[in-house]
From TrEMBL:
Protein's name according to its UniProt entry: glycogen phosphorylase
EC annotation from Swiss-Prot or TrEMBL: 2.4.1.1
Alphabetical UniProt keywords: Allosteric enzyme, Carbohydrate metabolism, Glycosyltransferase, Pyridoxal phosphate, Transferase
GO molecular function, one term: glycogen phosphorylase activity
Cofactor(s) required for function per UniProt: pyridoxal 5'-phosphate
Positions bearing N6-(pyridoxal phosphate)lysine: K607
Length: 720
């Protein structure tokens, strides 16, 4: 194994007494530990904010004076010593969960994903799939599950959204400053870029640079083709996430699967199981087969060996979510590869054919389903739907016996639970509750929190959200480049005392962002009620090439700035992790109304629910498992198809629900100013959601169903 060193790890400007801040900044553990975040904030609040909560950048920019002052500040040093103690303890405490019978020499799980949502200072994500991956890594780290992960650095940058004067989405990209983030460049011993050579592609090897992100105890390696030794076309491969250029996309997926495997092999990370988060990395399965063939197996034997050590998690019933590449394109780039697997052209293409539509092209989901020995969907319902969709792969089996299991998604509680909420729970749940937060018994203590205390905290979080949105609008106004109606549409007139619904998600048509506008007269009556008004916050981006999604945003934005809506509708620009945090903490209820059964699971509603923001949703995804009649609301016929009658009926049910249940509960007058019946829903929401829809519960299920096979067996038996 070639040796390498990590860049970024020394901060020569840090005084010895607080030298540990450097290591802390380089491990994302800080991002889900409020005490560590507070420590950075204590150093210099303004600089912390200006760095966009990026400790690496902030530490590099702080003046010697500020740092020297910190070394003389007893209060700061006390916090510093505590955080460093907790950090060291976290990194070194190997076995957190005795219920796992981990073999000490077990090989780690290798996790492959095209995107990771970890923190807003690391924009390598597009949406839900990325956050699921990020939360999965954090949880594996917390649980002490050995894991190594692979993904991409997208140097082209992150797509930011603004709404222009005409009410249309415009995108601008923001480059990632790779050398000022909580990531480290891998360098050779003489300080040059450490590269991994990826052979096979069109006979021309490609070099990728490698970055490391430390996610607690889990190492995540990001590949980057944008390095000086590469030609322009190679540099462009990893430019952008989910490009619609089919060649570029195929090359990305070859690099993610095959290149990612080469990176792990080069760095000496042998693994016991391959876990694919969605089909983008399915070529990693082939690369494992190639290794087995190289060691002397034939294709059939290699395939069998691979099956025992592979897990494919499929995420979407939406057809556009499944990549299909033209056969001749696959041939162009991979014709040198299939002989290494012991296959000819047809044998190779066969692996990617959809049984019902074999000429459509090389289907990455079909490839992943054929070669992975374990497959799971991401909710109970999604399991059912996926078995139906792919029954054709197992024509001899009854649909119910199609070997596709499910593990319902969950969210990383320390990341998504608002820190003040966490402090409140600390007071009532007893010491150490956070370590056993998937135990429903702990959450019964929610009953001991006085209604008024929970309500006041929620109200404060709503104020924070409204202030944040208005400040964003003010910043735009200050540029002098927007007109008043635009600013009105962005939330200037929001009122924190009003019942507030939140709707934040990608603007894909099946999510029906405009459902609530179906009957405008009825909606206007509801939101403009002088005594009991309602306001609705929208946020979300549309894929740059999704014209329908753009129209949907336009439609919602035009409503938001329509004076007849009274400023009660707002569209907030640039939905990202940070805005997402504010919204799931601060709105009163979380609205979800996709066309069933298109939402495989959904996770934003879980984030909201565990913060006391009840879910109001049609029956789909995780809500089919989460709803218990007391912890939120359900509406809609559950009807599929696309008839406008369905939208009309679903919208009517939503209006009924608002008028007859939610509004009266929220505005219920009480002498102490606390709407006790509403708080009842908040408490039920927290206590039913937090333990079950946490990534703690989710990862333990992955462990029991899949990972344990290899992790409890020791390395000599792994992978055959
Ligand atoms: C959680 C999250 C998502 C995914 O939520 P869905 O409910 O699956 O739409 C997308 N974007 C951000 C910023 C998130 O935090």
């Amino acid at each position: 194994m070639p040796s390498y060193q990590l860049s970024n790890n020394d901060f020569p400007n840090l005084p010895t007494r607080i030298k540990g801040l450097g290591g802390l900044a380089e491990n994302l553990w800080w991002s889900w530990n409020p005490q560590a975040r507070t420590l950075f904030k204590m150093l210099d609040r303004q600089a912390w904010k200006e760095s966009n909560h990026n400790p690496d950048l902030m530490l590099k920019q702080l003046s010697a004076g500020v740092l020297a002052r910190a070394t003389r500040d007893d209060n700061f040093l006390r916090h510093y010593d505590l955080v460093m103690y907790l950090f060291e303890k976290y990194l070194n405490e190997r076995v957190l969960y005795p219920e796992f019978e981990l073999q000490p020499d077990a090989l780690p799980i290798a996790y492959f994903s095209a995107e990771y949502g970890l923190h807003h200072s690391l924009p390598f994500y597009a949406g839900g799939l990325g956050f699921l991956a990020g939360d999965h890594l954090k949880e594996c780290s917390d649980l002490g599950i050995p894991m190594v992960a692979v993904g991409f650095m997208y140097p082209g940058g992150y797509l930011n959204q603004v709404i222009n004067r005409d009410g249309w989405q415009e995108n601008f990209t923001q480059k990632v400053d790779k050398d000022a983030a909580s990531i480290s460049r891998l360098l050779t011993d003489n300080g040059e870029q450490f590269c991994v050579r990826v052979p096979y592609i069109n006979h021309t090897p490609v070099e990728v640079g490698v970055w490391k992100v430390s996610v607690g105890r889990v190492g995540l390696y990001l590949m980057d083709t944008d390095i000086v030794s590469n030609s322009d076309w190679v540099r462009a491969i990893s430019q952008r996430l989910y490009t619609s250029n089919v060649t570029q996309r195929l090359l990305q997926e070859i690099l993610l699967g095959i290149g990612g495997s080469r990176v792990l092999a080069t760095l000496g990370h042998d693994f016991g199981m391959l876990h694919l988060n969605e089909g983008h990395a399915a070529f990693a399965l082939l690369e494992k087969i190639r290794e087995f063939v190289e060691q002397g197996a034939d294709f059939a034997q290699a395939r069998k060996q691979l099956a025992a050590m592979s897990l494919f998690t499929t995420h979407t019933p939406v057809p556009a979510g499944h990549d299909i590449f033209p056969f001749d394109l696959v041939e162009k780039y991979l014709e040198g590869y299939w002989p290494l697997l012991g296959l000819d052209r047809e044998g190779f293409m066969e692996l990617g054919r959809h049984p019902d539509n074999p000429e459509a092209g090389f289907n990455m989901t079909a490839l992943a389903l054929r070669l992975s020995g374990n497959v799971n969907a991401v909710s109970q319902k999604h399991g059912e739907v996926t078995r139906g969709m792919w029954h054709c792969m197992w024509p001899d089996k009854a649909e119910a016996d199609v070997p596709i299991d499910y593990v319902t998604n969950g969210v990383h509680l320390p990341t998504w639970l608002e820190p003040k909420m966490r402090l409140l729970f600390n007071r009532y749940f007893g010491e150490g509750w956070i370590n056993v937060h998937d135990n429903p018994a702990i959450w019964q203590f929610i009953e001991e929190i006085p209604d008024s205390e929970l309500w006041q905290l929620h109200y404060w979080l709503k104020l924070k959200l409204v202030n944040y949105i208005r400040q964003k609008a003010r910043d735009r106004w200050d540029t002098g480049e927007v007109d008043p109606s635009q600013i009105m549409g962005m939330g200037t007139l929001l009122d924190p005392s009003v019942l507030t619904l939140g709707f934040a998600r990608r603007f894909a048509t099946y999510k029906r962002a405009d459902l609530i506008f179906h009957d405008l007269d009825r909606l206007k009556k509801i939101i403009n009620d002088p005594w009991r008004p309602v306001q609705i916050l929208f946020a979300g981006k549309s894929h740059p090439e999704d014209a329908k999604g753009h129209e949907l945003i336009h439609r919602v934005f035009e409503f938001a700035r329509d004076p007849q809506m009274g400023g009660r509708i707002a569209f907030v620009e640039n939905y990202n992790e940070q805005l997402g945090q504010y919204m799931v903490h601060g709105v009163d209820a979380w609205l979800n109304n996709p066309v069933p059964p298109m939402e495989a699971s959904g996770t934003s509603g879980m984030k909201a629910a565990l913060n006391g923001v009840p879910h109001v949703s049609i029956p789909d995804g995780w809500w089919l498992e989460g709803y218990n009649k007391n912890n939120g609301w359900q509406f809609g016929s559950g009807r599929k198809g696309s008839d406008s009658g369905r939208d009309r009926d679903d919208a009517a049910q939503l209006y009924d629900l608002l008028e007859q249940e939610m509004i009266p509960l929220y505005y219920e007058a009480a002498e102490d100013g606390t709407p006790h019946s509403w708080v009842r829903y908040m408490k039920e929401s927290i206590k039913s959601t937090a333990p079950h829809f946490s990534s703690r519960r989710m990862v333990k299920e992955y462990y029991r169903k899949f990972y344990a096979q290899v992790l409890e067996r020791g390395s000599e038996n792994c992978g055959g």
